[in-house]
Amino acid sequence: MAKSMSLLLGSGCPPCWRVRITLEEKLQGYRRKMLSLQAGEHKSPEVLEINPRGQLPAFKHGDNVLNESMAACLYLENRYPSKGTRLIPQTAVEQALAYQRMFEGITLNDKLNALVYYEWFVPEEERCDNESPLKRRTEVLVAELQLWEKYLQKVEPGSYLAGSFSLADVTVFPSIAYAFRFGLSVERYPKLARYYSLLKGRASIKASWPPYWMESPRGYGVLRDL
Amino acid sequence: MAKSMSLLLGSGCPPCWRVRITLEEKLQGYRRKMLSLQAGEHKSPEVLEINPRGQLPAFKHGDNVLNESMAACLYLENRYPSKGTRLIPQTAVEQALAYQRMFEGITLNDKLNALVYYEWFVPEEERCDNESPLKRRTEVLVAELQLWEKYLQKVEPGSYLAGSFSLADVTVFPSIAYAFRFGLSVERYPKLARYYSLLKGRASIKASWPPYWMESPRGYGVLRDL
How far apart are CA B127 and CA A3, in angstroms? Predict the structure, then answer.
């Protein structure tokens, strides 16, 4: 079945990474191809044919198209619950927590993007002359990261966001990895750092680590002072 | 079981409405309380105790907290698949489409909010003197609405986003209703209008229609010229 699956992804794109981790946890033998976001390959006919939004990931299983990362993850889990790792917990308590953290993970990623890619998302003619947008985006992101630090305080060491490893971790980990790559302080966010350390050695995450992050292990330090 | 469920919601808040529709489709007898977003009641201790983000919806099932609207919907469907309407289709084709449209529905709602609530989301000191932000947000929303118009062209009359009524409709309908309330043209978006007409008479949607929309059936015409 994995042979009929193909994934187009961009290196270091957190939503793409979510689908990659889910596939690694559950199936082997799917096809994948890394495209360059920098070179604008997400706007190529190859992508547009699958994803009219011209975004990555672009995922197909036979004729079924799932371009929204979490849609792809939920679909894979729902179709193949007992293949590889079960990614939606079975108890009501863990299940509620997994769903809740998954969707909060979208917010975390949005807030990271809003600061790190401010100049990408806001065209020059809309940027005002004062410091307010960057200052506000920084405050919003700090409050968000502190919320996750608090959530992780309640998690036992060695445990995951919703008990066992789940789609909550699949969703959230790429954003956390990305924050540390962009300079987030291990000292000021110790619980996030502990969580990062726990996850980064997991087989599915090692296998899917963004290739260009290996070549240049550190990103620029835009989050260094947070 | 519904007796141990309570929902705090704001009138006309599309994410809140999603949870309301899901509950109406599946269960009876849950507790709910409408709060005023205008009066800032989403920042009250009553909400903050459940949702540290100070946002609505805030939903509890026993001790399980689900404040992200789609997390609550997925949880309810997953815990009670055979209660009331089944909201995740069972065939792979419909399931893929339902998940895909659900998550695209978040994007649709974000783009609506970005235009309709521009002044709410962007503080005065960050608004530039030119027309660019409103113009760009309008273009982005028009492109988004045209994409949905195209999706709905492929849907048979009388059919839903993913075949049978599903969480895709639960997610997307409140945003469509909201767009028409804010003046979207029935003539220029005929497939969206047909979809709106089909859904608005559904029992779960009628039962959960925002109360203040009944008092004042039309919103202001901010989307009239789109």
Answer: 50
The overall average pLDDT reported for chain A is: 94
- The whole-angstrom separation of Cα B76 and Cα B22 is 8
Q: Mutation target for A interface from B69, B77, B78: give the one with most A CBs within 10 A.
A: B78
What value of ipTM does the predicted structure carry? Answer: 0.95
Query: Is A216 a residue whose pLDDT tops 80?
Result: no
Contact A132 B147 (CB under 8 A): no
Q: Residue A122 and residue A134: Cα distance in Å, rounded?
A: 11
DSSP character at residue A53: T
Q: Which two tokens stand for residue A141?
A: 């992101």
Contacts of A160 (CB under 8 A, 6+ apart): A166, A168, A169, A198, A199
Which residues of B make CB contacts under 8 Å with A? 52-53, 61, 63-72, 74-75, 78-79, 88, 92-93, 95-97, 99-100, 102-104, 106, 123, 125-128, 130, 132-133, 136, 147, 150
Query: Å from A86 to nearest chain B CA?
Result: 14
Per-residue pLDDT tens for A21-71? 999 999 989 999 999 988 999 999 999 999 999 999 999 999 999 999 999
Superfamily of domain B2-79: Glutaredoxin (3.40.30.10)
Whole-number Cα distances in Å, B26 to B30, B78, B90, B127: 11, 11, 17, 44
Q: How far apart are CA A31 and CA A2, in angstroms?
A: 8
Q: Any idea where the domains of chain B sit in the sequence? A: 2-79, 92-215
Contact A55, B42 (CB under 8 A): no
Angle at B11 between CA B88 and CA A107, to 5 degrees: 60
User: Hey, are the CB atoms on B99 and A64 less than 8 Å from each other?
Assistant: no
Residues of A with CB below 8 A from B70's CB?
A: 103
**What secondary structure does DSSP assign to B60-84, as a single string?**
EETTEEE-SHHHHHHHHHHH-TTSS
Q: What is the CATH number of domain A92-215?
A: 1.20.1050.10
CB atoms within 10 A of CB B11: 19
For chain B, which residues score pLDDT lower than 70?
217
The pair of three-digit structure tokens given for residue A32, joined into one six-digit string: 């994948």
